Amino acid sequence: MFSSLMFTGLMANTWIAATIVAVIAGMTGFFAVLRGEAFAAHAIPNGAFAGAAGASLLGVNVIWGLAVVAIASALGIGALGSKARHDVVTALTLVLMLGLGALFVSISNQYAQQAYSLLFGEVFGVSSADVPLIAVLGVLALAGIGLAFRPLMLTSAMPEVAEARGVSVRGMEIYFLVVMALATSMTVPVVGALLLFSLMIGPAAAARSITARPGLALALSVAIALITVWLSIALSYQTNWPLGFFVGVGGALFYLAGLAARGLAGLGGGTRRVHPAA
Amino acid sequence: MFPLLQLDGVGVRLGGRQVLSDVSFTVGKGEFAAIIGPNGAGKTTLIRVILGLRPTSAGRVIKGVNGAGAGRVGYVPQKIVIDSDIPLRAWDVVALGLDGHKLGFPFPSRRRREQVEQALQDVGALGYADARVGELSGGEQQRVLIAHALVSRPQLLLLDEPLANLDLRSEQEIVTLLGKLAREHEIAVLLSAHDMNPLLPVMDRIIYVANGKVATGSTDEVVTSEGLTRLYGHPVDVLRVRGRVVVVAGD
């Protein structure tokens, strides 16, 4: 039923880049959801948009602009977030960056087209030259999450206990935000700032509802992100509807399905609540 | 007795204010000790000092005297709220107690599984090992957190208000469990509580905190009208009614 044209050489970069993006988004999104950092996951990609706009104004590769601004935003949120309220600092970082982004885009002469592609991505325009850099940043982000899996889990679930055991909660927080910033700088050019957010949050939120096993939940989060992205590319190619529409709807549908699955498991008596008569 | 924790003349200043001064006591192997005092007396501060999370202004804290297993402390914090959605089973929480500070993914082994299951069994939580921890009741979560603290085989178990927010039955079960851990596993148990009554059957030593100072000894020695009046610095009456102790701070 699908046109075989979408698997031709021209599309190969799209599939490869989108697959890397989905794996990264599924993994970093898992901890973003767990740690209640969905807002930061929204703010960092959108703020990094300013870096991309600035970089293109200066004539350097957009990814470098994204990386610098995303990491700076992460450090800013991490450094100020402990003193003031985390969400307020995150919001201020976001609006500051959006303001700068608006300025840079208006100075450059490709206003509408560029803003659109940074926000919604240009997954169908990934070039062969982009793929290696995306892959390297992707591996870095993956290693960053994999290496710190247990301390991230411990500080997410029980920060007080982690602190007493010598695991710095603030240190892990800043570490995670920087990894998320790395992930952002490679994924924004491909799927766009807005789509990245839905790809990070939707699959991870669904996965944690479906299973209580941490390793399996992480794997599911990646799997759902992959399915969402692959289906979205295929559907978008077929229909000419924007990719963002399919990614957004996919994320929401998987989340609802996850909630329903957990609800059904709960109704069926599930795993426990079989107390002996008191 | 072999002391596992020793405080010598410990003082703590917070923001220029002296909140604790001249705190001295020891807790030995197999001993059950409780830090008792009204809210805001400095119980949590004292626990944070013992954990090394808060600096002292005077005195010293020695853990594992004579060096044996120094610093091996299991800790259960106060009023911990575990996100009900977090994808962790009771089993995983205990496993994090074993190696949650290490890098990389956990390497599954028979030894690791046995250690986790033993800790769950020690606290009577093996029956809900596979349940999502956020969906357990307060008493069940408390058991899982104790198992998390126990799994690394500490010599000292430190609990901050472990009986707060528990119903009467869970409260009794947790007290019995902690008493059993002190006796059978020969670990030192030190906890804080605002009410001493649930602890009377198992408590070996009371560390009564009030007015920035402490009085320590057996309950009968410490909790008297004269002793507490001296500690509080104003008249206090201690009443013993049907095996319960009531402290009345009169004006």
Describe this structure in words.
- The complex is a heterodimer of chains A (278) and B (251).
- With 278 residues, chain A is mainly alpha-helical.
- Chain A has a domain at 4-193: Orthogonal Bundle (ABC transporter involved in vitamin B12 uptake, BtuC).
- Chain A has helices spanning 9-34, 38-58, 62-81, 86-107, 111-120, 130-147, 149-157, 159-164, 169-191, 193-210, 214-239, 243-267.
- In chain A, helix 10 (193-210) packs parallel to helix 12.
- The radius of gyration of chain A is 19 Å and the shape is globular.
- Chain B folds into 2 domains: 1-72 and 154-251, 3-Layer(aba) Sandwich (Rossmann fold); 80-152, no CATH class.
- Chain B has a 6-stranded mixed beta sheet with strand order 5-6-7-3-8-9, sandwiched between helices. Chain B has a 3-stranded antiparallel beta sheet with strand order 2-1-4, covered by helices on one side. In chain B, strands 10-11 form a two-stranded antiparallel ribbon.
- Chain B has 251 residues and is of the alpha/beta class.
- In chain B, 29% of the residues lie in helices and 29% in strands.
- Chain B is built from 7 helices and 11 strands.
- Classes of the chains: A mainly alpha (278), B alpha/beta (251).
How large is the count of helical segments of chain B? 7
Tally of strands of chain A: 0
Based on CA inertia axes, which overall geometry of chain A fits?
globular
Which architecture of the domain at 4-193 in chain A does the CATH hierarchy give at level 2?
A: Orthogonal Bundle
SSE-based structural type of chain B: alpha/beta
- Topology order of chain B in helix (H) and strand (E) letters: EEEHEEHHHEHEEEHHEE
Task: Summarize the main sheet of chain B.
Answer: 6 strands, mixed
CATH homologous group name of the domain at 4-193 in chain A: ABC transporter involved in vitamin B12 uptake, BtuC
Query: What is the CATH superfamily classification of the largest domain in chain B?
Result: P-loop containing nucleotide triphosphate hydrolases
The Cα radius of gyration of chain A reads: 19 Å
What does the average pLDDT of chain A come to?
82
